[in-house]
Each structure stands twice: as structure tokens, then as C-alpha cells.
Amino acid sequence: MSAAEEVVAEGHQAVEAVPKRAMTLGTGTSLLVLAVLLLVPVFVKNFIIFQMTMLLIYGLAVLALNILTGGSGQFSLGQSAFYAVGAYTSAVLMEYFNVNYALTIPVSAAVCFGFGYLFGKPALRLSGVYLALATFALATAMPQLLKLNFLEHWTGGVQGLVVTKPDAPFGLPMSQDMWLYYFTLIVTVAIYVFSVNLLRSRSGRAFMAIRDNEIAASSMGVNVALYKTLAFGVSAGITGVAGSLGAIAVQFVAPDSYTITLAISLFLGMVVGGVGWLPGSFVGAAFIIFVPNMAESISKGLSGAVFGVLLFLVIYLVPHGARQIAILGQQFAGKLRRN
Amino acid sequence: MRFGRTLRAAALVTATAAIALTSGAALAQKKYDTGASDTEIKIGNIMPYSGPASAYGIIGKTEEAYFRMINDKGGINGRKINFVTYDDAYSPPKAVEQVRKLVESDEVLAVFNPLGTPSNSAIQKYLNAKKIPQLFVATGATKWNDPKNFPWTIGWQPSYQSEAQIYAKWLMKEKPDAKVAILYQNDDFGKDYLKGTKDGLGAKASSMIVMEESYEVSEPSVDGHIVKIKAANPDVLLIYATPKFAAQTIKKTAELTWKPLQILTNVSISVGSVMKPAGFDAAQGVLSAAYAKDSTDPQWANDPGMKKWNEFVDKYMPGADKTDTAMVYGYGAASTLAKVLEMCGDDLTRANLMKQAASLKDFAPDTLLPGVKINTGPTDFAPISQLQMQRFKGEKWELFGEIISGDVASE
Q1: Searching chain A, which residue's CA lies closest to the CA of residue B85?
Q2: How many CB pairs lie under 8 A apart between chains A and B?
Q3: Smallest Cα–Cα separation from B164: which of B265, B306, B31?
Q4: Nearest CA of chain B to the CA of A28: how many Å?
Q5: Which of A139, A219, B3, B47 is the most buried (most CB within 10 A)?
Q6: What ipTM was reported for this prediction?
Q7: How many CA atoms within 13 Å lie on the side-chain side of B378?
Q8: Nearest CB neighbour to A304, from listed B50, B85, B186
Q9: Closest CA to A335 of A24, A23, A327
Q10: What is the Cα–Cα distance from A17 to B78, expressed in whole angstroms?
């Protein structure tokens, strides 16, 4: 069996082919969700707004992974590293160069895109579990790299950096949390629309062709190496934006925030949300934010075990994650309409 | 009819006035901020119950048990303590989320004893902006003693730097021509000690320190480092290592039949988890400094304070491992908070809580060494700053010399 054949076989086992229309929500549903996201913050406490902001931020990071895995069929356990690079880019620019927070976000996106693209180059030679391992190494190395002595002047070493939270502009009468939420929401919607269109475009079709069958894709004239690294770059760029927003929302960056645990959480979020289903990213993000808290309220000493049981239930009952529930819901709605 | 209505109105006015007056008087006596009432004081806490530092989770459990004991005895000034503790998994973003939950959703009066330097750094600005006390943080970094910039944050344990300075001062006095080698953990903990030592030695640091060797916490063993250090032939070895590595160091030096003067960080002085595994023979003559009693040290068997601690553990944490120093730590920290709340009386505002926390005078929790006392003031936010030197002899630590104070102001 040649290496290429192996890739094909593994690709089929690991990532199920998702048709591109099934990757998004209908227009009506999307607008409804957006309306809810716009209105809810007016009625809830600042703490809930903060949690919703974190939900959008982690949702973006999961979305980025979804483009990479669900779109182009490549695995990554190293998303926490890109997230960290984005967070530190924003933090350093804001605290040392007094750059406006909103301007740091495109910079983070560019830096992370470059970083991801370059990392994608050597990673081309790897596939399946080997790629997962290589990215895993990146995630484990990142916190230590951030502690390096010659970077300490910028990164603050183990002590981390405190980030100032922005006020609402133009004297808008809203709290910092609410403004940050709406700011995050704007960025999220923009990136979501970009991602949906990306996957519907020629590049998106190329990603999916590679995911489904690399050899067939290349024989149809798809530049496999280019699109694979491009997928890595785009994914890293979006993760970097999420990292930037995360740093601003949490107001603090430190190496301990970006350990392998974060990468695994994001991976978990993707699986729970449904691999290849973009709206599921936000369901997955909700899972990784709220379920550990629920597990803790059930048992403090055994919170990890309770979380494990809940996760097991999800995987066992709905193996395709939130996408499966959405499809069931759709079928049910269709039946009702017919009746 | 008309008269009746007027009368009723007059009565109403009088009654309202009376209520206003009495409640006004009551307000003068009892003052509350969010999280405190006539019956309850709500205290928040975050701990790493899961994740890489989950071994410290026992501190939170001890504190929870301690407040249960206080409540069983009737509470503090008649109010029960409602201790709300959440898991932050030693992750700063999670710490921020959980602390915001404590403040904005659970509405606690103060956040007490949150653990870990990164987690505390992450929540410090938020709590200070909201003017919520961040009481007695569980970390040895020096930066918590900074009342000017962070008036709502106060430390508890002696800082690593001040402890290292005590060792440096002792060396300058007792062994001024020593050749010193330093083994330290390559993180904030180890680097704080390194800085403290150099500051303490001052101008002599460059001539006295012959070697600085660091190890990563992920390494399985430090044996290789010890062999390397021995080759430089120092006569004093400063061991700034966490328990596992400290035990390895003491054991390895003995195996090499090398006998430098060894000084060990207070973090790793547990008889049960360091000295015994290292071997009592190998550990003879090792020096360190302490501020709390060691639960595994037989010399405290009849100590009234430790007897109280033992009774507490037996009743409220049955089955817990008594050799765990975290339980001694949690007991000491919780009793400090209980003392401060008692001092607050009926004025349970956040400002008064902070004021009382900064006016502890010679408070001695059951678990601290005899003579070590907690003192704070408006410009001194480092509650415990005293330590006493000790030498390992036989199967226990022997205290010697005077209690030394080593306050280090934050830069």
C-alpha cells in the first residue's frame, strides 16, 4: 500500500464526507439565531454577556478547526498554539505599542495565517494520526516557548500580561462587556459569512475534493499542496482572531492559558458540534464552556469523571453531534408541515 | 369620616417616621455590602480541583470543612459562612470566568484564598476595579504586597523572595566565604528564589555563587544536574525545588558521598513526602526555614494547636491523608479569614473587610510555629513575613536561632 493510498483509506475512516449544502443553516434560521444573539444581552446580567462573548470566541476557534478538518480533512491538535499567538499578538501590540484593540485583530489574523501556512508546509508530508501528533507537539511546545528568556521582555514570561479592556466608542451608553460582546458578534458574523462563502467557492470545493479523495482531486487539476497549506493558513488565521478577542475579553494572557487542554477542548467542541457542520461549532463551544460547570455542580471531586460520562453519552447517543439533532429537527418539522 | 381619614393619615406618617428612625439607627450599627446579611456571609473561592495543579484542591476542601465547623459552632457573630468554591483547573481564562460568576451571579462579599500566581494575576485587575476584596491569595509571589496600586489585594504566606533573602543573610553571617551552587526550577517559583538570593547576597552575589543550574518540571529526575553541580565543587547547595525533585537531590548527594551544606526551600520541607523518601540518613544536617507546623513531625504531637487541628481533621475530614501539608495550610488561611470577619463585627462592608484584613495584630493561628505572628497594616499587605531557621536531625526538624523577619516590598 503506498502512502497516498493510505491517506485515502484513513481519510474515509476519519472524516465523513459532508455535502457542502449540509454544512450551513438555512437563511431563515440564520437570521433568527442572529436576532436572538442581538437581543439577549439587553436583558441579562454582565456575567452572562461575558459568557456569551466567550461562547462566540470559542465558537470561532472551533469553526476554524472545522474548516480544516471538516473542510480539507486534515487533523490538528495544535489549535491552542495559533490561539496563543493571536492572543499574544494583540496583547503585546495593545500594551507596548498602544495600538487600538480593533486594529490588532487583522494583524493577529495575518500573523497567524503566515504561521499556519508555514507550519502547513512541512506538515504536508504527514497525514492522519501523524499530522495529529505533529500538531500536538506544537501545542505542547507553545507554553514553554512563551516562557523563553529572550521573549520574556515582551511576553512577561510566566507572569503573563494584563490587557486593558476597551470602553464603548462614540460615548455609546453600554457597559464594557456589552460593547465587547457586540464587537465580537460583528467579527464572528463576518468570519462566519466568509467561511460559508469560502466553502462554497472554488477553493472550498478544492478542500472538499482533497478531503474526499486526494488522488482524484489532484488528477482533476487541484493543487493539493497549495490547498492543504492554504486550509492550514485560513484555519490558523481565524483561530488567531479568536485568540485576540479572547485576550481582550479575559484581559489577561499567560502561557498557562494556552496549554494542550485548550486544543483538546476545541477538538472536543468540533466533534460534539458535528464535524463539517459550521453552525455546530457554536453548539460545540457551548458544550466546552457550560458542561464542565454543570459537571462541577454535580460533583466537585469527580467533576472530570462526570464530564467524561456526559461526553460519552453524547458520543454514544448522537455520534454526529449537534448536526444529527438539527437534521432530526428538520425532518420532524417537515412531517408537521405535511400533516 | 373625614376626621377618621386624617387620623389614619397621621398615624401612617408617624409610623413611617418611626420605621425610618429605627431603621436609620439600625443602619448605623449594621452595615452590609452585597454578600452579607443578618444571617449569612457569602465568601467566594477558586481552586484547581482538576488539571495539572489538582493536588492543591485539598486546600479548598479543608477551607470548606473549616467553615462547616465554624457554622456548627454558631457562625461568626451569629452569621453563617456560605463558602462557594469553584474549579478553575489552574487556567487563567477559567479563573476569570469563575470569579465573575462568584461576583456577578453568586454575589459574594469577597474572594478568599484563590490559588496560583497566574490565576490571581488574571483576576486582580477585575476585582480591584470592582472594589471587591481579593483576600489572602494562595501564592508566594512578591507582587501581592502592593497596597498602593492594588488596595483590594492582600497576600498571606511569606513570599519566596523574602524566604530566599533570609537564607542569603544567614549565609553572609555564618559562611561569608562560601562557594554557593543553586539548583532551581525553571519557572516563576524557582526564579523568584533565585532573585531573592541574589538580592540578599548583594554585591557578593557574583563572587559567592559559582553555579546556577535549572531543571524543567517535566524532567523525570534531577540526578544528572547534581553530578554536574558536584563537578563545580561548591560547598553550599541551595535547593529551590518542588518536593519530588528535592527528595531526589538529597538522595543523590548522599549517594555521591558528597556533603555540601544543603539549604532547602520551605515548599519542600514535608517530613512525610520529602525527608523520608530521601532517606533520614541522607537528610541529616539539611537546613531550611519554616512558618507553619508540620503535621508529620512528632514534636507537635502534644501541641495544643495541632491537637485542635487533629480533632478538626478527624471530625470534618474523616479519612483524609494527614501527611498532606495542604490541610495545614488551608486551616491556617481559613482561620485567618474567620478572625478578620470576627473583627469586622456588624460592619460587613467590603471597605471595612479590607481595613480589618490590614489591621491584624499579632494573630497566631493554631498551625503556625510558636512565635510566628500575622501582622498587617495599611502599608503592609504581607500577613506572614516571619520564618525560623531549622535543621533536620534524627527524624524531625529542630528549630534554631531567632524568628527572622524578611519583608520584601513589591517593585
Answers
A1: A300
A2: 86
A3: B265
A4: 33
A5: B47
A6: 0.76
A7: 2
A8: B50
A9: A327
A10: 65
Distance from the B139 Cα atom to the nearest Cα atom in chain A, whole angstroms: 12
Q: How far is residue B31's CA from residue B27's CA, in Å, rounded to a whole number?
A: 6
Cβ–Cβ < 8 Å for B327, B317: yes
Whose cell is 495543579? That residue is: B53
Find all residues with CB under 8 Å of B60, minimum gap 6, and list them: B45, B47, B49, B85, B113, B115, B330
Give backbone dihedrals phi and psi of A64, rounded to 5 degrees, phi first: -60, -45
Residue whose grid cell is 537546613 = B287
Predicted pLDDT of residue B260: 93
Instruction: Tell me the residue length of chain B.
Output: 411
d(CA B407, CA B382): 7
DSSP letter, residue A331:
H
Nearest chain B CA: its distance from A255 CA (Å): 9
Using CB atoms, which residue from B52, B86, B100 is nearest to A50? B100
Quick one: pLDDT at residue A321?
82
Contact A64, A269 (CB under 8 A): no
Q: What secondary structure does DSSP assign to B245-292, as a single string?
A: HHHHHHHHHHHTT---EEEE-GGG--IIIIIHHH-HHHHTT-EEEESB
In the numeric block, which cell numbers belong to residue B411? 517593585
Domain ranges of chain A: 3-338
Angle (deg, nearest 10), helices B325-344 and B57-72: 40
Contact flag B89-A162 (C-beta cutoff 8 Å): no
**The pLDDT of residue B135 is above 80:** yes
Q: Does domain A3-338 have CATH number 1.10.3470?
A: yes
Contact B377, B271 (CB under 8 A): no
Decide if B126 and A157 are in contact by the 8 Å CB cutoff.
Answer: no
Mean pLDDT over residues B304-315, rounded? 93
